[in-house]
Amino acid sequence: SYTNHTVMAEALEKWPQHLFSSLLPRIFQIVCEINARFCGELWQKFPGDYGKVSYNAIMDSNQIKMAITGYGGADKKQMQLMVQSVLRLKSLPRPDDAAGFTMLQEQLGKVLDPLVDRVLLATGVISVCVEGNLPLWIVVLLVVRDLVLLIEGRIMIALMHKLVSVSYVGKFATTFLLFGFSFLLLGTPQVPGLGLVESPLLPGLGAQPALLGVDLVYIGTILSLTVFVMYNVKGWGAYFRYRKQQAAA
To answer: Per-10-residue mean pLDDT for the chain, 249 residues long?
Structure first.
């Protein structure tokens, strides 16, 4: 329910209760009910600590804290189980633990950010394959690369409870691939062949004109393989350092 914006005080939107109730009377009743239930949970977690309950409450000092409204109304148990399962965590930070939420956000970002990129790339690969504009070996190479990284990522989480940081080279690779897939689906523009290799498996590298998207996919594929090597070197290097520290301890 929280993002990096909603835990920042300057970005935490607050509405005066009298304005909210006059403009949205029915929604105001629902928010009041959410606040009552959420405060009940807070009193159970922090019995007698009025300061913490007031600080974390949805409605306080005649104001409604919009970000906390989303948190209080969310199905937190299911979200907690999902996050704990993905990150292999034993427990989640408390609502007032800003440092813990920052750490949690970073770990989730390392998991979800590349996952979203992979979904976008998979959509592009499937679409281009249907159109028949891309050599099959590139599709197989990209799919195998992503599957290996997915498996290795799960291994890293299981062994060290963390992932390798996302590389900017990977972002460039994703950008080139997405633009390449887009141009291939559009079927334009065409560019002169490079005249390097004459092979049906390498369109665009021969003398015949080819779509610009093919060249962009080549660049993206080379960058993707570079990132694959970088992630493996960094990831397994971090794992062996972790094992060494564990053995020394």
So the answer is: 47 75 83 85 86 83 69 53 57 60 63 68 76 82 85 77 74 87 86 87 87 90 91 86 81
Q: Where are the alpha helices (DSSP H) in 46-161?
A: 50-56, 66-73, 76-87, 98-131, 136-160
The pLDDT of residue 102: 63
Structure tokens at 124: 């592009």
* Locus of tokens 């950008």: 175
Instruction: Return the exposure string of 115-140: e unless at least 16 CB atoms fall within 10 Å of the residue's CB, then b.
Output: eebbeebeebbeebeeeebbbeebee
Q: How far is CA 39 from CA 9, 43, 53, 102, 249, in A?
A: 20, 6, 7, 24, 43
| All residues at 6 or more sequence positions from 225 whose CB lies less than 8 Å from its CB, including other chains | 141, 145
